Amino acid sequence: MVAKQEIKFFIISDSVGETALNIAKAALAQFTDVSPVYFRFPFTKTEERLDVVLKQAREKQPIIIHTLVTAGLSHKINQFAKENKLVCYDLLNPIMSEIVKRSGEQPRGEAGAIHRLNDRYFDRISAMEFAVMYDDGKDPQGFLEADIVLLGVSRTSKTPLSLFLANRNLKVANLPLVPSAHIPGQLWKVDPKKIIGLTTDIAVLNNFRRERMIAYGLNPNTAYSDTKQITEELNYASQLYQKIGCYVVNTAHRSIEETATLILEHLDLDNYGSPKP
Amino acid sequence: MVAKQEIKFFIISDSVGETALNIAKAALAQFTDVSPVYFRFPFTKTEERLDVVLKQAREKQPIIIHTLVTAGLSHKINQFAKENKLVCYDLLNPIMSEIVKRSGEQPRGEAGAIHRLNDRYFDRISAMEFAVMYDDGKDPQGFLEADIVLLGVSRTSKTPLSLFLANRNLKVANLPLVPSAHIPGQLWKVDPKKIIGLTTDIAVLNNFRRERMIAYGLNPNTAYSDTKQITEELNYASQLYQKIGCYVVNTAHRSIEETATLILEHLDLDNYGSPKP
C-alpha cells in the first residue's frame, strides 16, 4: 500500500475556527489518498498570538485557511503570506469588502460576532432542550408545542435529526413507531404539515439493527433484526403516514444533514427555521 | 430609523450548502445595518438545475457564494459570473487546486462527499444518542462510559454543550448540581481529567432563571432566582470542583461554541474528539 500524502493545514480564527475547518474538510473530502493534519489556532485575537502562529507557518509550509476579522490581523496575515510565499486563503475579507461596497457600512472588526448571545441564540438553546425533553415520545404533550413532529420505526435517525433541527431553532418532538404500541391521541391534533414520516430500506435497517445488537453484546439474529418483522414495521409506518397524509423521507442513504435539508426545503423554512424570503 | 440595507445572497451547493451559508453568516455578523436575504440552492447537481439558478442570479445581482465540486458545474458558474460580471465566491476549488498541486491526486468531483456515511458518522450518531440518554444525571452509570462529564448548577448550558460535544463524536454525560442532592458514587470513580465544572456569574444566572420563570408563566421572584440562593449554589459547586480537582469553565459570557472549544483545547482534542497531532 502506498502511504497517503500528508498535507498540513493551519486553521486560524479569532473566534472558534469552526467555519474554516469545515471548508478544509469539504475540500479534503474530494481526495481519497490525502491525509490531512490540522493545526487549529482558535481565539487568535492579538498580534502576539498571531506572530507565534506565523512563525510556525513559515517552518511547516501548510495550507493556511483563516477567518480573521479583527482589524489589522487579517491584513497582517495576508501580507505575511505574500512576503513569505505561503499559501493562504482568506475566507471572509473578500466577501466583507463586497458587503462594504454595497452597503457603505464599515465592518465592526469584532471577533466572534457570529456567536454573540442574542435572542436567536437563546431560542436555539431552548430548542435543544425541547428536543431532549420530547425525544422518543417521552411526553406526547410536546407534539402540540412542536414545530416539527418526526415519526419513524427504531433506527431511522429520529434523535440525531431532532437535535440537528433544534440547532436550526426548531422545536422538534419525535415518536418511535412500534406496530403493537398505542399512538398517543395528541398526534391527531397536530397539523399534518408539521409531521414528517421517516422511512428506510429493509436491508439498511436490518444491518443497523444487527450492528446495534452486536454493540450491546447480544445475538444479532433476534426478532428486532428479522427481515420479516422489519417489513411489517415499515409497512405499518407507511400506512400510518398515508392515514396522516404527512411528508415522507427515506433516510436510508442520506446523512442527517441531507435529510434535514430536505425537511427544511419541504417546509419552506430557511436555515434559521424561519419562512423563506 | 433608517431602513437596513438589504443584500441578496445566493448560496449554491451540490450538497446541503451548510458551509457556504456559514461563511455568509460569519461575514454578515460584522455588519449591524445590513439585512441579508438568503436564497439557498442545495443539491444543485445538474447543469439544468444550475441554469435555472444562474438565470435568477442575472436578474437579482446577488453576492454568490458556492461550494460546487461536481466536475463541470464549478467551471460553468465561475465562467458565467465572469461573463455576466456577477460577484461570485468559489470557496472550495482554489483550495482543491492547491491540494492537487501538493498531492498529485485528482479530486473525485463527487457532491456531498463530506457527508458520506462512514464509521465516524455512525460514531457521531451514537454520541448524540449517548448525550440524550445521559442528560441531566438521568443514569449515573453513564459517567463511567463517558469521555467527558459536565457538572454545573441549573442554567449553566450543560445540555446544549453536551449535544455540541456529541457532534464532535464525544460521549458526554452531565449532572446538575443541587446543594441538597446526593452526588452519585460513580462520579468519584471517573478520572478527574474527564470532568469539567461549569460555573457562571451570579447576575447572569439570576437573569437566566428569572427569564425561565417568566417563560413558564411563574413569578420570577422565587428562591430559584434568589441571589442569596444562587450564591450558595455556585459556592457549593466551586467547593465540589476543588475537591474533585477538575477543570472549571465560566460560561457567563461565552457561547456554546466558545466554551466547547475551550474544553477541547483543555483536553488536547481536535475537532473530531481525537488527540491532536
UniProtKB/TrEMBL annotation, chains A, B:
It is an enzyme of class 2 (transferase). Pfam families: Kinase-PPPase (PF03618). GO terms for molecular function: ADP binding; ATP binding; phosphotransferase activity, phosphate group as acceptor; protein serine/threonine kinase activity. InterPro entries: Kinase-pyrophosphorylase, PPDK_reg. It catalyses: N(tele)-phospho-L-histidyl/O-phospho-L-threonyl-[pyruvate, phosphate dikinase] + phosphate + H(+) = N(tele)-phospho-L-histidyl/L-threonyl-[pyruvate, phosphate dikinase] + diphosphate; N(tele)-phospho-L-histidyl/L-threonyl-[pyruvate, phosphate dikinase] + ADP = N(tele)-phospho-L-histidyl/O-phospho-L-threonyl-[pyruvate, phosphate dikinase] + AMP + H(+). The keyword Chaperone does not apply. The keyword Transferase applies. Its EC number is 2.7.11.32, 2.7.4.27. Keywords: Kinase, Nucleotide-binding, Pyruvate, Serine/threonine-protein kinase, Transferase. ADP binds at G152, V153, S154, R155, T156, S157, K158, T159. PANTHER family: PYRUVATE, PHOSPHATE DIKINASE REGULATORY PROTEIN 1, CHLOROPLASTIC. Belongs to the pyruvate, phosphate/water dikinase regulatory protein family. PDRP subfamily. Bifunctional serine/threonine kinase and phosphorylase involved in the regulation of the pyruvate, phosphate dikinase (PPDK) by catalyzing its phosphorylation/dephosphorylation. This is Putative pyruvate, phosphate dikinase regulatory protein.
